[in-house]
Amino acid sequence: MAQRPHNIKQHFDFTRFSSIGRALIVGVIAGFVVSIFRFSIEQGLKFVQWAYGQIHANWLLLIPWLILTVLVAVFVGWLVKKEPNIKGSGIPQVEGQLAGELDYGWWSVLWRKFVGGVLGIGSGLFLGREGPSIQLGATIGQGVAAKLRQTGSDRRSLIAGGAAAGLSAAFNAPIASTLFVLEEVYHNFSPIIWTTALVSAMASDFISLNFFGLVPVLHIPYDYNLPLSQYGNLIGLGIFLGVFGYLYQNVTLTMPNWYAKLRLPSWLDGLIPFLLVIPIGLLWPQLLGGGNAVILNLAAATPALIALLGIFVLRFSFSTISYGSGLPGGIFLR
């Protein structure tokens, strides 16, 4: 057997270790930013629900609340006008970046998405925080890449890692966040991307857990398993959700066309959901927000069937109205 010449030097490849170090930086920063984003939304929603309770006690407060709502809607619309890349969930923008079809200034998007998302989602609109958290994390990855002068595949790996970190901090699920980014955002697999995304997601999740504790976001305890005799109902449920999921997707995609028929500048479309959320808040303040609390409340005390259908119709319709306006917010959780 031929022996390797003794004059050939062995070099240890530090490429992967350096990528892990950069991934840790992205994950920690994204964990802090998205955790503050998540905390701000939760506190904003609590304030809004408290405010509607005060209005019930004194209806004269409805007038200043209406003025404040219009001012917030106009301000968020102005943010969207100045930086159109903060519209919606932000996931298509991240996909465009990773595909090399889109680029934008990271700081301009970061602070506007943060402020616009807190004001929009925290005001009680039916928008989720997970999509914006993905864009916030990806933008942080882009910023770290710029500061460290990373380009090409190294830059893309940091953006993908930031996206996974953002979702992980919002949802406390690092492995699911990594898989989601690889399958739905990056649309590709490589050891470097997988390692970077997983390390960033785990670092971000560690930071988030120190903010919110170890209880999962959708912690639903159960006392017994579903009996085998009821498994047939799951088929019917799957068909029902599949049909309405398809319908929901089509309504959501056509909603911008309906907004285009209004005689408003497109950046002011957000006025519609901001005004429509007021009667919802007055009548059912417990239904406001992205849907996390609603799911937990339904699990704790399931209402009558007619009430469930009412909640379904309300969230189906108003979430499409909220998202179709182009406000910074997602529909990852309805």
A few lines on this structure:
With about 325 residues, the chain is mainly α.
CATH architecture: Orthogonal Bundle
Number of helices: 12
The CATH homologous superfamily is named Clc chloride channel
Integer count of domains:
1
> Shape, please?
globular
Instruction: Pick out the low-confidence regions.
Output: none
What is the element string, with H for helices and E for strands?
HHHHHHHHHHHH
Question: Structural class, please?
Answer: mainly alpha
Our estimate of the beta-strand percent is: under 5%
What portion of residues is helical? over 70%
CATH topology group: Clc chloride channel
On the 0 to 100 scale, the average pLDDT is: 88
Provide the gyration radius in Å. 22 Å
DSSP strand tally:
0
CATH class assignment: Mainly Alpha
Q: How is the biggest beta sheet arranged? A: none
End-to-end separation: 65 Å
What this model shows, in words?
- This protein has 334 residues and is mainly α.
- The protein has a single domain (17-334), classed as Clc chloride channel (Orthogonal Bundle).
- Helix content is 70%, strand content 0%.
- The chain is globular, with a radius of gyration of 22 Å.
- The model has no long low-confidence stretch (mean pLDDT 88).
